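re: the backbone from monday

yeah here it is again, tokenized this time
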């Protein structure tokens, strides 16, 4: 009853987004933008692969992955969501490592590319 009464006095948008203040709307929009970037990376990879007629992972995929994961990680920390934090943290390490391999390894170490 206490939870219901506490929620019933809030504006519908607060209940819908599970927030308690106007700044929460900005945080949810930030998280949504991160998710859009994260989804967009797959669309980018798909379009580049279709154009090449083979599976290709463009550098933009890794940059969009890193940006989206960073935004989502920040959002999940704000939400105090340990599942989201752990999920994005693991991926974040992989995206940074791939960008490191692309930009900071010697050309002779990259192979036949």
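seq for it, each position gets an aa:
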């Amino acid at each position: 009853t206490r939870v219901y009464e506490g929620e019933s006095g809030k504006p519908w948008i607060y209940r819908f987004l599970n927030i308690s203040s106007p700044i929460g709307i900005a945080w949810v929009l930030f998280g949504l933008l991160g998710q859009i970037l994260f989804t967009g990376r797959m669309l980018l990879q798909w379009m580049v692969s279709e154009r090449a007629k083979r599976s290709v992972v463009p550098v933009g995929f890794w940059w969009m992955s890193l940006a989206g994961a960073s935004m989502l990680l920040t959002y999940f920390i704000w939400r105090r969501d340990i599942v989201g934090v752990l999920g994005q943290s693991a991926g974040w390490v992989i995206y940074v490592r791939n960008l490191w391999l692309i930009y900071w390894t010697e050309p002779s170490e990259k192979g036949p590319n």
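The radius of gyration is 19 Å. The chain has a mean pLDDT of 87.
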